[in-house]
Amino acid sequence: MKTLYTGILLAGLAFTSCTKLEQLPQSTASQSAVFGTENGLKLYTNSFYGMEFLPKNSIRLDAMTDYLAIKAVPDFIRQGGFGANNSSGWTWRDLRNINYFIEKNNDPAVPENIRNNYMGIARYFRAYFYLERVIYHKLSKH
């Protein structure tokens, strides 16, 4: 019985002496991990390709035919075509994500030419985002 208590006591001392039991979550990236490496910049900008404002499939691309029909048939929107009156609205989440990247992409640990490459990708997607908003606005007024 004494050996059992001694074993438990030694095991307890062994585990309490391990003071470094904290780890950062593997699924969470710090700002320096993302913006301090080329791979982090690449992963962040790759997320732009899946944003909601980009056409994703043939169903959405087919909706472009509705824009041409709006000019030909004035009451087309009232018959169920796509327009500002029956759209689900805009979200600005993607734009905030792009602007956050542009703001934080300044870590000197990454060479400037690499940062500029990914900055160009972010600015392209931001311009495309605004272009989509202008096109929707212009077409919904006709």
Task: Provide an overview of this structure.
The chain has helices at 2-16, 31-35, 38-46, 58-62, 64-72, 93-104, 112-141. By secondary structure, the protein is mostly helical. It is elongated. The chain starts with a helix and ends with a helix.
List the SSEs and their pairings.
Blueprint: H1 2-16, H2 31-35, H3 38-46, H4 58-62, H5 64-72, H6 93-104, H7 112-141
Helix pairs in contact: 3-7, 6-7
List key phrases describing it.
single chain, 142 residues, 60% helix
Backbone CA Rg: 27 Å
Number of strands: 0
What is the 3D form? elongated
Percent strand = under 5%
Task: List the helices and strands in order.
Answer: HHHHHHH
Which bin fits the share of residues in helices? Answer: 55-70%
The tally of helices reads 7
| Uncertain stretches | none
Taking the sheet with the most strands, its summary is: none
Average predicted local confidence, pLDDT: 74
Distance between the ends: 90 Å
Tally of distinct domains: 1
Which secondary-structure class do the elements indicate?
mainly alpha
Give a short summary of the structure.
This protein is mainly alpha-helical and 142 residues long. Helix content is 60%, strand content 0%.
